[in-house]
Design brief:
Pfam families: Gmx_para_CXXCG. This protein is of the alpha+beta class. The chain is built from four helices and 18 strands. The longest helix has 11 residues, at about 70-80. Bound molecules: zinc ion. Zinc ion binds next to loops.
């Protein structure tokens, strides 16, 4: 199986679709003032994680980094909602995107580059073709167009790893006090660590890196629905 990173269109490309949205998420985990590794906040989004049963007003606010004790208390509230192998990072947000949309959307879009949005027919086709690992969460959007198709955000869970040789020296080691995972600058030339690729999954993310990774099958199926404002860059594995 070959794998590809989803990216936006080339800088000088003419856009095929006019769709845009303005959204926020319901729940947020602030960054942390860690006594060992310092103050930090990453980013990440888990639209499928529904925290409506957690009665904690702090999670409904967007705030700056919080004290270590408060951070650990909030992480413990969120932990049961994600599998143990998925790291919880300060600065992450949870729940579906909520807001407004206008214009027309292609089968897949990637704007901003860390969010991938699928049109309803793309989700249906991917599922009908039996692709796995597709976590598509319906966005709660208001639009003036009554016939606007539903849009879904694709969730990526950091399951694979970039190859250590492409990450190089510039990385911050993980911290076992606050649970911060290893962080590094995204290397411009990158490839996957083959042994870390989750078998059989058609969508996943990488530890410490934002771009979505999709299988060759995913690309082939979505391309059947016509042009889109995304490009696919092959991500070799070694
Ligand atoms: Zn720390």
């Amino acid at each position: 199986m070959r794998y590809f990173e989803i990216r936006g269109p080339p800088r000088d490309a003419e856009w095929q679709w006019s769709g845009e949205y303005r959204t926020h998420r319901r729940w947020h985990l602030p960054g942390v003032e860690c006594p060992r590794c310092g103050t930090w906040a990453g980013m990440g989004a888990y639209p499928s994680v529904d925290l409506s049963g957690v009665e904690e007003p702090m999670l409904a606010q967007v705030t700056g980094p919080t004290s270590f004790a408060e951070y650990m208390r909030l992480v413990a509230l969120i932990r049961p909602f994600l599998p143990p192998e998925i790291p919880i990072k300060g600065g992450s947000s949870f729940g579906p995107m909520v807001g407004t949309a206008r214009g027309k959307f292609g089968p897949i879009s990637c704007d901003p580059p860390w969010e991938v949005v699928l049109r309803e027919d793309a989700v249906e086709l991917l599922k009908a073709e039996g692709l796995t690992g597709i976590i598509a969460v319906r966005m709660e959007l208001r639009s003036r167009r009554s016939n606007m198709p539903a849009l879904y955000e694709l969730e990526k869970r950091p399951l694979a790893k970039l190859h250590p040789d492409c990450i190089g020296e510039w990385k911050t080691p993980p911290c076992d006090v606050c649970g911060r995972p290893e962080m590094f600058d995204l290397p411009p030339k990158r490839w996957l660590l083959r042994s870390s690729i989750p078998e059989g999954l058609d969508v996943f993310g990488n530890h410490g890196a934002n771009p979505y990774v999709v299988s060759e099958r995913f690309v082939e199926v979505v391309q059947r629905l016509g042009p889109a404002d995304v490009t696919y860059q092959e991500l070799p594995a070694e």
